[in-house]
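Hey team,

Filing this mostly as a record. A colleague (T.K.) asked me to run one chain through the structure pipeline before their review meeting, and I want the input and output archived in the tracker in case anyone asks later how it was produced. No errors, nothing strange. Just documentation.

Input sequence:
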Amino acid sequence: MSEWVTIGSVVKMQVSCTRIRLGPVFDPAPLREVSRARVSAEGVIGFDGNAWMLDSHHQTFPDRRPVALHRALLIGFEGNYRRVWNAHRPIPLGAAGENLIVSSDRVITPEEIAGGVRIGHGEDAIELYPAMPAVACAPFARYVLNRPDLSAEEAADTRRELSQGLRGYLLAYDRIEPYDILPGTEVAIRSPIQIF
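Output structure:
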C-alpha cells in the first residue's frame, strides 16, 4: 500500500457565514477566518475566538441549498492558488470558499489526491475519502477573470480549468466523533497505488 506523504500544514481556516454565490454573482465577503475548525459528517463549524459559526454548507445551516453528496470539508492548497494567480490574476487566498488552506510549493492534482487526505499526525490523525475536485461555477470563473459580463459559454474554458482541483477538493468524513483542526496541523496525501 502506498505511504502517506506530508505536503504541508494548515495555514488558513474559514467558514462562509452566508452563501458566497447569489445567482450570477460570486462574492467572497461572507467568508470569516477562524482559529479552530471542527469537522463532522454534517460539515464544518468554526470558532473565531468569541463564538462558533456554522459554515453555509453544514447540514444544519438554515435554508441550506443541496450540496455535493458526502461533502464535509472543502480543502485548498497554496500552490493551486499560485497557478490561478499566474494564469489569471491575484485573488485572495481562500476566496473560493475552502474551509482549509494548506501550505504547498506546487499544484496538487486530482490524480495525486485521489487516495485521500490525512489531517493530523499519529493516532490522533483523521483520514478523509474520497477527495473529489470541486466543480467551479460560472460566477466563480467570472470572479477569477474579473469579467462579470461574461456569458456561461464564454466562461466555460476557465470553469473546466478551475474544476481540475484549482477550486479545491471536497472531502467526506465518516467518523462518529467530530475532529478539531488548528492552524499548523499537518496534512498528508496518499496517491493511488501505481502498477507498472
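Quick notes for T.K.: The radius of gyration is 16 Å. The chain has one domain: 5-189.
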